[in-house]
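A reminder from the course coordinator: this example appears on the midterm review sheet, so study it carefully.

Given structure:
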């Protein structure tokens, strides 16, 4: 299992107490391997991943979308995932 590319993404956890809501950001990584894509909570075999797209939101980051046979999964990214997307498309086109 070889790592081809990695893309950091953010998960947001909210905590509510009696007077306020506090949001915590945690950085995770999406890893593209030669047979699958792995996130903190999911694992997708490359045959299941139909496409990857990106929508920029505001001046800082946007949403990375994994289009899979099991549905659409979105991830908050703060840096451009263009290289990750290109690596996925090149590898998938040459191997599947």
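Designed residues:
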């Amino acid at each position: 299992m070889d790592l081809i590319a990695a893309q950091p993404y953010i998960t947001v956890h909210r905590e509510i107490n009696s007077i306020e809501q506090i949001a915590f950001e945690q950085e995770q990584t999406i890893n593209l391997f030669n047979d699958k894509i792995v996130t903190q909570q999911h694992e997708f075999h490359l045959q299941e991943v139909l496409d990857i797209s990106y929508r920029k939101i505001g001046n800082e980051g946007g949403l990375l979308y994994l289009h899979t046979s099991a549905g659409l999964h979105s991830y908050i990214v703060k840096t451009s995932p263009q290289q990750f997307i290109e690596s996925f498309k090149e590898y998938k086109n040459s191997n599947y």
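The beta strands are 3-16, 21-33, 36-38, 43-45, 49-56, 62-68, 71-77. The first strand starts at residue 3 and ends at 16.
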